[in-house]
Design brief:
about 260 residues, alpha/beta, Carbamate kinase, 8-stranded mixed sheet, EC 2.7.2.8, amino-acid biosynthesis, kinase
Length: about 260
Amino acid sequence: MATKSVLVLKVGGALLQCEMGMARLMAAAAEMLAAGQQVILVHGGGCLVDEQLTANGKETVKLDGLRVTPEDQIPIIVGALAGTSNKILQAAAAKAGIVSVGMSLGDGNVVTAKIKDERLGLVGEVEPKDATYLNFILSQGWMPICSSIAISSQGEMLNVNADQAATALAKLVNGTLVLLSDVSGVLDGKGQLIHSLNKSEIEHLVAQGVIEKGMKVKVEAALEVAQWMGKPVQVASWRDAEQLKTLVKGGSVGTQIQP
């Protein structure tokens, strides 16, 4: 087993529409794995979900940055996330020479899941449960690629926000969490990168409306993990795979969310 903390990388749906971005990210991940760094990749797939919903004549509604998931949309959302999105990333991993295991939050008892808020429909809230399955995959030198679809004890298929899914897995393996999106980190009102944020600074920027919607969900998930683990969480960009290499060497990238 590697002595270094497991790196939990969360990637957004926009990555799936950028072949160059995926190739660069997987090349960086392959390098890390070769150096003995264990990596878990957690993904959303918002763009693919939207495409599939539109193709099926369904509407996308969001509430506070979270996708509302009516019952008639869940088969489409599950197919887009646990199916297409997951396999696109596995294919990119294979191309980079990585042995991966495609999985969802419903596998191996890794989390417990329940409905988050009735107003959101089949949107799940997850808590870390059992690391046995993930630890086995990691011990083989393989990379888990996990979609944000969970299953409740009542057998409901639930759509989980991918930042929150990555949060649960980072807690589970006591890993280092990096939330990667297509922006370089948290930006201030003038579009400049903020290098470090703590709880009160985040609350201030949320009150001002500088941090909102999807970034608000992301930053709050990052803060939760930072506080839980007593170490910073990074919010950075997959567009710059060099940022990842800096990270592997222990450097800081993007915005550091402080505990």
